[in-house]
Structure formats: C-alpha cells, structure tokens
Amino acid sequence: MTAETVEYIRYRIPEDRSAEFLSAYTRAAAQLAAAPQCVDYELARCEEDFEHYVLRITWTSTHDHVEGFRKSELFADFLAEIRAYVGDIEEMRHYKPTTVRGTGAAVPTLYAWAGGEEAFARLTSVFYEKVLRDDLLAPVFAGLAPEHASHVAMWLAEVFGGPATYSETQGGHGHMVAKHMGRGITEPQRRRWVNLIQDAADEAGLPTDAEFRSAFLAYVEWGTRLAVYFSGPDAKPPAEQPVPRWGWGVTPPYRG
Q1: For residue 119, what are the contacts with CB-CB under 8 A and spacing of at least 6?
Q2: Lowest-pLDDT range, 37-41, 155-159, 240-244?
Q3: Does residue 165 contact residue 154 with C-beta atoms inside 8 Å?
Q4: CB-based contacts of 32: which residues, under 8 Å, 6+ apart?
Q5: Cα–Cα–Cα angle for 54, 60, 62, nearest 5°?
C-alpha cells in the first residue's frame, strides 16, 4: 500500500468571512504547490451549508508533512496567510487510504471505450500479421505460438480495464516479464513495435480520438521500455505483481 496520507481540515466559516477566507487560501496554496511533500490539494465548500469547508491535502507521508513541511519556511508563509482561521477549524487529522477505491461508470474504462474484447482481438490479430512480415521484428518472434496473439489481447484488455482473464489463466505481471528475459530487445526493435501497433490500431478500427490514443500510446511506451530493460543481460526479475491497470491520465474522454 502507498505511504501517502490524506489530511482533512474541516472549517466552519461564517458567510461574511467567506470571501476573505477563500482569498487567504488562494494565496496560501502557493506554498502547498511549492512543497515537495505535497502531492495535491483541494478546498471544497459544502453545498447544503455554505459555512462548512473541507481542505484535503495528500502528503507523501505523515512524517514528511509533520517533520518536513511543518518545519520548513514554506509552512511559516502558509500559516501567515491562514492564521486568522485556525480558530475556525473543527477537525484536522491524517487519514490513510484503504484498498476500497475505484472509479464509477461516469468515466468509461479504456477497454470499454476501445470496444471491448473484440476490439483487442482484432488489434493483436492485425498486429502480429505485421510483426511476422517485418524484417526487424520477425526474428524476435520466430516460432510464435498460435495462441500468442490471443494471450496478448487478454493482457491488453486487462491492462486497459477489462476482465482479469489474463491474471486468472496466465499469471500476473511477472509472468509477462518472464517472457522477455534474455531476449536482448534493441531500441530500434522497440520503436518498430510501437509504430506497428499504432498502425494496427488504425487498421483494427480502435478509436482515434486524441484522449484515447494518448493513453494507449503512453502504455505502449511504458510497456515496451520495460520490455527492453527486462530483456537485457543485467535485468533481474521483479517481485510478483498484479497486471497494471491503465487509465485516462490527464485527459478523460472528450464528450463535446
């Protein structure tokens, strides 16, 4: 589990002081933004009772917050801006995230947006046809097992938010990594792999919107660079890990 901790500070600010309160925190936020111990922050106002505010700050750890930020010059400047509202605090505590987390259906998974299982099956079918005809990559995949394309389709489907079929039938991240150990994949081969799978995505009819393709390519870049590393002579197998789950990142799907 991550070492990050979430601090919640609950305020009750009378309506006639709310403008000054928000202005003070707008200035104080500059110190949070500059703090290396701060992951992110957000000040929210209650819709049902405008006097209630909650400041959420994610810290790299409780220790980093207490021993790092609070003992830094940034904290002195932060406190100077919001000192007048310390007496209005109703709660100020650290919370550790639990494993109960996830996203709702308001934002579709990349798997669903792409078109589900059939889309990834089309993708890998087209892709490996290209690979086996490619002068640079064909030697790497010589003797390819007939089921290889379907296994990679399951892997990509799970990575992009689909069912955990790969984990249940093939193994986790370590199993995929093991397939690359000792293969000596070169940077030109990695780059060709990236180019061909983008071409295959076009031919297989995967969505072409900027948001999906940027997330798709981000995973392809990440995954292929790991493949090069783990295929090298000095690589050590990682500890067993779950299949990574890729999301939209900075840009969720554009809905107009």
Answers
A1: 204, 205, 206
A2: 240-244
A3: yes
A4: 38, 41, 57, 78
A5: 70
